[in-house]
Structure formats: C-alpha cells, structure tokens
Amino acid sequence: MKKLILSMVLVGAATVAFGQKKVVRSAEKNFKNGDLTTALSEVNAAIQDPETGSDPETYLLKAQIQLKMFGTDSSNTAETLEYGQASLETFMETFQMAGGDKTDGVGEDVYAEDMTGVPDNLRPYSIMTLKNTSFDKAINQYEQDDFEMAYEFFNLAGEIDPTDTTIHYNAAYLANELGKYEDAKRHFNLLLDVPDYNKLNTYYFLIQILSTEDKNPEEAYEVVMAAREDYPGDKILAEYEIQLLLQLNKMDEAMAQIKEALANDPNNTSILLRSGYLKEQSGDIEGALNDYKKSVEVDPNFYEGNYYTGALLLEKSREILAELNSLSDDEWEKRSAQMGEEANQYYSDAIPYFEKSLELRPEDTDIMVILFQIHTRLKNEAEAEQYNKKLTELLGPNWQEN
C-alpha cells in the first residue's frame, strides 16, 4: 500500500511538472502570436511552480513578454515606461539566476546582440533589444516635443548600458533642460568615466549646474581643475576658473590666472572684463577703466564692456562731486568751476557707452534712466526730454517717482 501511495504521489508530481511546462510552452506560443496579456498570465503562473519557477528560462520568457508589451505600446506614456522598467527588472533577475555570465547559457541570451532593422521574429528579444526599443521611443517623443517622456526613455536605455555616450549625453541634456539637475549630473558623470570620450561639453554643463543651480562654487572649481588637466589649452575653462576664483574670493589666484589667460589671449573680452573688475576692486580705477575700454575696442558690441566703462566713468564723476561737496566754502569757491567741469567731462564721456548699451538692449529702462539723468545734469534739454518721453511711454507718467 505504501508503495502504491508513493507511486501515486510521484505520478502526481510528474503530472504537475508536465502541466507547468505545458503552460510555459503555451506562454511561448502566445508570446510569438502577440497575445501578450495571456502569455504574461501564463508565465506568471509557471513562475509560482517550484520547478519551472526556478528555471531562468521561465524568467527570460517573462522579460521578453514584458519587452514586447513595451515595444508594441505606441502611446509612449508613463504606463508604457512601466512595461519597460518591469522588463529590465526581470532581465536582471534572470541574469542573476543564470549565474551572471554574459558569455554562457541563459546569461548569453539575456545580453544577445540586438539586430535592428531585421524582421521582428529575427530579433533576439534580449536586454539589448530593450535598450534599442527604449532609445527609439526617446527619439520619437523628442521629435514630438514630449521632452519629459523622451528623457525617461533615454534614462531607461542608459540603465542598460552605462557606456553608451549618445544615450547618456541626450539624457543629461534633457534632464538639465527639464530642471532635473541631479539626474543631469548623474548622466554627465557617467560620461566622464568613458575612456577616450570628448568630455569638454560635459565639463561645461557640470560646471554650470554646480555653480549656478547648486550654488556650489567649491565643487564647481574642483570640476574646473579636473577639466583643465584634460584640456589645458581651453579658453572657456580658463574663464570659468577665473569666475569661480572670484566667487570664492580668491583674488590673488584670480589675478594670476587672468594675467596668464591674457598672455595667451590678449583680446578675450570676458577676461578683460574680469581683469578690469579685479583692478577696480583693488582700487586701481585707471587700470580697470583701461581694461573695460579695451574690451569695447576689441568688440564694439560687447554689452558688458560698454556698460562697465560707462558705469566707471560715472563713478569717477561722482567721486569728484563728492570731494567738491566736502570742501570748505573758500576751497569750494576756488575749485568748484574746475572740478565741476572735470566731472561733467566724465559724464559726457560716459554717454556713448550707455547709448551703445541701450542699442544692444533697446528695452532696458534702467539705461534710459541713466541717460536721462546724465543729459539732465549736462543741461542737454532736448536729449533729456527724448528719454523722458520714452520712459513715460514704457513706465507711465509718474516714472520718476517709482
């Protein structure tokens, strides 16, 4: 009797195992025929069985079914993305069950090279197929201006291949545009780990994010130093270094870098501007004015150079008037005419620089106000009235009270 019962148990177990294998075969058939919902239900049932559920082939089939559901969903919504993420998770689980070897058995199937452009039935439906499918969806959504989902699909493809520079650059660029700065940094930093990749633009983006969005000039400066080791002759990196040294209040180092940069590139307007700023901060007003003026000589349309030159000329005139007002009555009588004329000359010299600034930014009412005040000071009534009318149109009749 015991032998009979044991035989019945063994037969029953074999029948169950055979039944589950039959379910797997049915799932494979439905996968190929496109009945994916049924196929997924069947493979999930097979996973619950101790025998078929311990077979990495079963999990590979599930990942392939999820991948096909991902690929055939053309809506490319967040729900579509969930299919792709689920497929990736199952592929990785399959790979671990198979021993984590890309060169043997099921592990080799998981990472089989995808053959794009061939009929669907010839594609391996591997994790590399998932990568390429996600990349195609990213491009499709980008072309439809759906940048949020384009980023998500690039990001999914990037999880599969950390060395694909095209995917990670696109993901990083979109993340930066969308304000996902932590994601952008993650993808940019992956690019820095890829040998022989041209990392210059990656460095630019990282420095900008760290210094502007994160307000972390210390870390941005560290990235600049690493970038300059890779690209020692790059002029933009030299400008970033100077800018960050100024932010960090390292004036001596900044001036040393400015001198070196100007020796290599004497007509660099941005560096001339920073040189002028440093000199102005140190009290060398004439040196600062010369640098500002030179930047405009190099590029007459350099807005900052024009504005800074005009502003420093105004400052010189105001210093003269402040000194004049501090004199005793007797001294004031002796020197007021000469000092007033000198101050007016600086006001007059500032006009063309502010006029050029306004030409470059024609809606800037702050510059209009400055020009109105200068012409009023110089008693240029026609010119002052011209700016008064323009400001009244833009700011209202009571603009001077605001």
Any chance you could write out the topology, listing elements then pairs?
Elements: H1 2-33, H2 36-47, H3 56-72, H4 78-97, H5 105-110, H6 127-143, H7 147-160, H8 165-177, H9 181-192, H10 200-213, H11 217-230, H12 235-247, H13 251-264, H14 269-282, H15 285-298, H16 303-325, H17 329-360, H18 365-377, H19 381-395
Helix pairs in contact: 1-2, 1-3, 2-3, 3-4, 3-6, 4-7, 6-7, 7-8, 8-9, 9-10, 10-11, 11-12, 12-13, 12-14, 13-14, 14-15, 15-16, 16-17, 17-18, 18-19
User: What is the β-strand count?
Assistant: 0
Shape: elongated
User: Which class of secondary structure composition applies to the elements?
Assistant: mainly alpha
Order of helices and strands: HHHHHHHHHHHHHHHHHHH
Strand content: under 5%
Helix segment tally: 19
**Rg from alpha-carbon coordinates:** 35 Å
Describe the structure.
The chain is mostly helical. Among the domains are: 23-115 and 122-160, Serine Threonine Protein Phosphatase 5, Tetratricopeptide repeat (Alpha Horseshoe); 162-265, Serine Threonine Protein Phosphatase 5, Tetratricopeptide repeat; 364-402, no CATH class. The chain is 77% helix and 0% strand. It has 19 helices and no strands. Helix 1 packs parallel to helix 3 and helix 4 runs parallel beside helix 7. The longest helix is centred in the N-terminal third of the chain and has 32 residues, at 2-33. The model is unreliable at 1-18 (pLDDT under 50).
What are the main properties of this structure?
402 residues, mainly alpha, Serine Threonine Protein Phosphatase 5, Tetratricopeptide repeat, 19 helices, 77% helix, elongated
